[in-house]
Recover the amino acids of this structure.
């Protein structure tokens, strides 16, 4: 297992580093596929779906109603019940985020207000294949529906059998999605960016993915399509002391490590013996995991960190800015009060990161790779944009007009000043 390292001012920057991605080669592949999809539409999408997913090119990209319904029916009733429970909690958490109009009369006769309007067309990317993330369907589609998005297009790659996972279809049906496309990878993001014969162009793309999808979303943004947030490999940081249970901590680290070989797990403690117990427990639990090979590869760059200083520890956490932060410490009040950067926080011995992934209600679409310093977790606001309004009477313009003219002329913008001056000279 990885050696225990001390947190110091000298090694702080190095401890915050994430695994490096080969961005140059990724960008070349992304650019080639985007250009092909832009020029050739569905034909290019099908070509890459055959190349990467083994789909036959003559098959339809969009799932028809019969296939969709039959797939959803395959989900066991017990799992359907769990998905419905998750949907209810996610909906409850996001519904309270709905905001009404905010208005203020800044001067007599000058009324300003702000309203939220839904983004009309959104694309949801749902990872499929070996780990079909049907939970992500709920995390994206539920707030999209609550926000009032008019067109919701879901893209997801099929499994080895060429079919979309039944729980993804059921979750989409439950959340009110109307269109599902059997396409994944770079070609799906490119299709949502430009539009093809089968897949409509959208205004914003949401959803996690591997390094190829992440690079494709960055390209989409450069092409004028908004994206939810910068995302990369999953990560968790657990801060635990002797009051925590090493069995629980090990389970939390492994639950993140099994996501992918590039996932990052970090455990911080003020007790070296506790860290050793956690490492021993990780080895024990890893041995019986179905995805042990993936988790083992991820654990090669895991970090187990020691510091007796609370100030040093919280400085590291804020600098690292974890996607998921699990806090199991008798000093939780200190850490919560001084926490500045994290995607989603799990407090206490009975708050596993799995709860946020599936069912507590908070959104599991979160900033990674240190972007929690400037981005927050996905919420209802991400599916809307704010529009500002102002209604100004003649008297209102009198109250602010002279100052507008002075400021405009001071900036050398005479036409701006005239736009006010001409109105004030008009007696009608």
């Amino acid at each position: 297992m990885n050696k225990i390292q001390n947190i110091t001012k000298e090694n702080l920057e190095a401890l915050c580093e994430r695994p490096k991605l080969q961005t140059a080669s990724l960008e070349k592949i992304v650019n080639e596929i985007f250009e092909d999809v832009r020029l050739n539409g569905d034909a290019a999408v099908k070509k890459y779906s055959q190349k990467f997913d083994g789909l036959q090119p003559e098959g339809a990209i969009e799932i028809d109603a019969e296939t969709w319904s039959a797939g959803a029916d395959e989900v066991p009733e017990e799992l359907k019940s769990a998905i419905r429970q998750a949907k209810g909690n996610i909906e409850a958490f996001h519904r309270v985020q709905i905001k009404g109009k905010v208005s203020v009369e800044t001067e007599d006769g000058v009324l300003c207000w702000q309203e939220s309007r839904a983004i009309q067309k959104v694309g949801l990317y749902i990872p499929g294949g070996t780990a079909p993330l049907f939970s992500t369907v709920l995390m994206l589609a539920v707030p999209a529906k609550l926000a009032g998005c008019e067109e919701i297009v879901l893209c997801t790659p099929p499994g080895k059998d060429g079919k979309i996972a039944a729980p993804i279809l059921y979750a989409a049906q439950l959340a009110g999605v109307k269109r599902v496309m059997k396409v994944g990878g770079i070609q799906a993001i490119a299709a949502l960016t430009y539009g093809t014969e089968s897949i409509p162009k959208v205004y914003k793309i949401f959803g996690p993915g591997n390094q190829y999808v992440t690079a494709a979303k960055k390209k989409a943004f450069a092409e004028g399509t908004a994206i939810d947030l910068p995302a990369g490999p999953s990560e968790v940081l657990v801060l635990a002391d002797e009051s925590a249970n090493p069995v629980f901590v090990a389970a939390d680290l492994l639950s993140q490590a099994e996501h992918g070989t590039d996932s990052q797990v970090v455990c911080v403690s003020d007790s070296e013996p506790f860290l050793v117990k956690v490492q021993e427990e990780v080895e024990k639990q890893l041995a019986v995991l179905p995805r042990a090979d993936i988790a083992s590869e991820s654990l090669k760059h895991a970090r187990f960190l020691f510091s007796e200083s609370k100030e040093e520890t919280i400085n590291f956490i804020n600098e690292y800015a974890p996607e998921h932060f699990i806090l199991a410490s008798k000093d939780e009040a200190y850490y919560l009060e001084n926490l500045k950067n994290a995607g989603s926080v799990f407090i206490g011995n009975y708050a596993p990161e799995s709860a946020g992934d599936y069912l507590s209600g908070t959104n599991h679409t979160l900033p990674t790779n240190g972007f929690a310093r400037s981005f927050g977790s996905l919420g209802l606001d991400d599916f809307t944009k704010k529009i500002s309004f102002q209604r100004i009477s003649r008297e209102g313009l009198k109250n602010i007009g002279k100052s507008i003219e002075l400021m405009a002329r001071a900036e050398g913008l005479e036409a701006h000043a005239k736009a006010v001056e001409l109105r004030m000279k008009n007696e009608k």
